[in-house]
Each structure stands twice: as C-alpha cells, then as structure tokens.
C-alpha cells in the first residue's frame, strides 16, 4: 500500500466530517471501543491529558504538549483537523507520524477484516493511540474532535481533563443552548479525575461544577485561579507574574491569554503529579516556541509581511468575538478580507461581527461542504459587507494580493471564516515553496 492509497482510503472510504458534515458524526463509543480492542487497547499504554472546548482547545493542547516536550518528556499530540497534510493530526515531539506508519496501520486494519465500518475520526483516533504506544510516549495530549461525551477520544482515562470554554457551535449535534453544549463537553470528566475549566459563567459553570461533584472530580476554574498580567510584545504576548515568572508566548491572538491561563494551570497540576521536570525554563521554551514544538498553525498566523497577510481558523461566534475586536486595530490599515464558510453553519452572527469598512473577497474552500461564494456574497450583503465572489481561495487571495500591493498606505489581508479556507491558503503557499 502506498501513502496515496492509504489517504484515499481514509478520505473516501470512511465517513469524513470535513466532507459530509453531520452525517459523518457517529455518536456512541461502541465502534471505537471494538476497534481499539482489536489493536490492543493502545491508549492504556501511556498517560494522557484530555482537552475539550468550543474554542482554544488546539492552542491549549499545543501549549501543554510543547512545554512537556521542552521539559524532556516524550510527548504525543493528537489534534484535528489538519490543514495541509493528514499527518499533522498525529505528532510526537512535534514530528508527524511517518507516511509508512500511516500505510502500515491502514493495511493492518484492512487485514483484520473486523466488519466495523468505522468513521474517519474513529479510525484516525485509534491510529494515533497505536502510534503513541508503539513509540512509548511518556504522555499524550489528546484533543477532543467534537463534543466530548460521545467523542471517539473519550475511551481514555486521563491524568487530567481540561475544558477551555463553551460557545454555540455544531448545535445540531450538541444542543441548542450553552448548558446543553456544556453537558456534552462535561462528558469527558471521569470519576475522581481532576478537571480544569478555562472560562465558564452562570448556568454553564453550574453544569461543570455539578458534573464534577457527582463524579467526585476536583474542579478548578482557570479564570479564578491564575491571575497574571499580559501585554503584547514584539511578535509575542508577554505574561508577567505567572508562577513561572515572565513568559513570552508565540501565540498572539487576543483570545490567547485565556488559553495560556488554562495551559499554565494544567502544567502546574502536572508538575505536582509526576512531571517534576516542568519548570520555568521549560515553560518559557514551550510557550516561546509552541509552533515549532507542536506543529500548530493558523492561529492569528502571519504568513507574509509584504503584503501583510494574516490567517486564523476561528470559525464560530465564540472565536469571532475575539477576531472581530482584533481586526478593529487601526494599525492593520485597510483590510482585505478573504472569507469563506461551510454550508451547514449559521453564519449570520459571525458576519455581524466583521468590519463593514473592509474590502471583501468571498470564496469557497475545496471541500464538499463549502458554501458557494455567490451565496455567501448575497448573505453578507445583508450585513453591509461588500465585495466580489471567487470560486477558489487561490483566485480570491490573488485578487486581494494585487489590490493590497497597489494600495497606498498600510493594508492587511485577512484569510479565514472556515478552517478549510485557511487550509487551502496554506496549501497554496506550500506549493509555491
């Protein structure tokens, strides 16, 4: 089996959320439990940290994993979705799983002839666990795919559960209200296992507190427990008065102080519970080099200085509460917004958070779920957002680049709306490299 064969099987022969949305979501753990058992229940061979949340779970997972790597622990990291290469999802100390190992796992699955018909995510999850066990990681940071209670990753029993925050996303699957969504995320809380929650107020906070109490799980809210100061420095956010001293973090989005607080509190817990090598030096190195040490991409990421290009994978109202404010920074100059969405998301709230004085390049990503750019342009017009429609991210980005280059004065190209729009941009830039 070639790598191309393996990827074709994963993308085309297993139901994949990226392509077909909710129809790929398989609630329940029966299939993944049986699949895991067929591969020796590899998740029982290593310690883990489980991270859920509507927004920020990728950044928080990466900060924790990067610091563990910097401290000298062999650290697995499982995240989703990928942006350029499937192998981004499964890493050890920042290094992606090899193409050969992907091939070997898919072939082993086919040879077993289990008759299970797993989803893409179920198969990928067990592949990650198998990879981490084979390479004898000391610990793995496992990001939930969607929800928590019925997510494939929820077969693990971690050292620590982490929930970053709650906002409305995937409501058709997780519930229409914030407490309903919180209840699904709270499903990762295991009996007696401590849980750290980043941000939660009101009824959402009560859901987490009640669930933790019922399961006798100690709970800590990062927003209460870890005060520190933050200020933007050169290409970084500087955190002062932390338990690890002053820290410069490579992630500069305005949402990142909340993720940093959650990650720092998680690291404090781990340091006190078997990971004594975590110290101020490893935290500074992990936070300062998080993208290199974890492979994280697409979080308020500068991809070019001339023209100035920023991309961000924020794709729901909770993420755009921060992005909308950050894009209002006058130092960015005139904004050229390359924007696209998937067709099963309520985008009205998000569009209402976008700057009306920008030039828009409405586009569609190269996935089956992409909302047609003409339809996006029509909807955006109701929110006083105006521009032209383009049938590919490449075409839209090239138009924005031409306009920004010809413009007098400061200007910034922003690319986002959907994770898959950012993925198409980064794939395009990788082709140029």
UniProtKB/TrEMBL annotation:
<dbReference type="GO" id="GO:0046656">
    <property type="term" value="P:folic acid biosynthetic process"/>
</dbReference>
<comment type="similarity">
    <text>Belongs to the folylpolyglutamate synthase family.</text>
</comment>
<keyword id="KW-0067">ATP-binding</keyword>
<keyword id="KW-0436">Ligase</keyword>
<protein>
    <recommendedName>
        <fullName>Dihydrofolate synthase/folylpolyglutamate synthase</fullName>
        <ecNumber>6.3.2.12</ecNumber>
        <ecNumber>6.3.2.17</ecNumber>
    </recommendedName>
</protein>
<keyword id="KW-0289">Folate biosynthesis</keyword>
<dbReference type="InterPro" id="IPR001645">
    <property type="entry name" value="Folylpolyglutamate_synth"/>
</dbReference>
<dbReference type="Pfam" id="PF08245">
    <property type="entry name" value="Mur_ligase_M"/>
</dbReference>
<dbReference type="GO" id="GO:0005524">
    <property type="term" value="F:ATP binding"/>
</dbReference>
<dbReference type="GO" id="GO:0005737">
    <property type="term" value="C:cytoplasm"/>
</dbReference>
<feature type="domain" description="Mur ligase central">
    <location>
        <begin position="51"/>
        <end position="264"/>
    </location>
</feature>
<keyword id="KW-0547">Nucleotide-binding</keyword>
<keyword id="KW-0479">Metal-binding</keyword>
<dbReference type="InterPro" id="IPR004101">
    <property type="entry name" value="Mur_ligase_C"/>
</dbReference>
<dbReference type="GO" id="GO:0008841">
    <property type="term" value="F:dihydrofolate synthase activity"/>
</dbReference>
<comment type="function">
    <text>Functions in two distinct reactions of the de novo folate biosynthetic pathway. Catalyzes the addition of a glutamate residue to dihydropteroate (7,8-dihydropteroate or H2Pte) to form dihydrofolate (7,8-dihydrofolate monoglutamate or H2Pte-Glu). Also catalyzes successive additions of L-glutamate to tetrahydrofolate or 10-formyltetrahydrofolate or 5,10-methylenetetrahydrofolate, leading to folylpolyglutamate derivatives.</text>
</comment>
<feature type="domain" description="Mur ligase C-terminal">
    <location>
        <begin position="298"/>
        <end position="416"/>
    </location>
</feature>
<dbReference type="InterPro" id="IPR036565">
    <property type="entry name" value="Mur-like_cat_sf"/>
</dbReference>
<dbReference type="Pfam" id="PF02875">
    <property type="entry name" value="Mur_ligase_C"/>
</dbReference>
<keyword id="KW-0460">Magnesium</keyword>
<comment type="pathway">
    <text>Cofactor biosynthesis; tetrahydrofolate biosynthesis; 7,8-dihydrofolate from 2-amino-4-hydroxy-6-hydroxymethyl-7,8-dihydropteridine diphosphate and 4-aminobenzoate: step 2/2.</text>
</comment>
<dbReference type="InterPro" id="IPR036615">
    <property type="entry name" value="Mur_ligase_C_dom_sf"/>
</dbReference>
<dbReference type="GO" id="GO:0046872">
    <property type="term" value="F:metal ion binding"/>
</dbReference>
<dbReference type="InterPro" id="IPR013221">
    <property type="entry name" value="Mur_ligase_cen"/>
</dbReference>
<comment type="pathway">
    <text>Cofactor biosynthesis; tetrahydrofolylpolyglutamate biosynthesis.</text>
</comment>
<dbReference type="InterPro" id="IPR018109">
    <property type="entry name" value="Folylpolyglutamate_synth_CS"/>
</dbReference>
<dbReference type="GO" id="GO:0004326">
    <property type="term" value="F:tetrahydrofolylpolyglutamate synthase activity"/>
</dbReference>
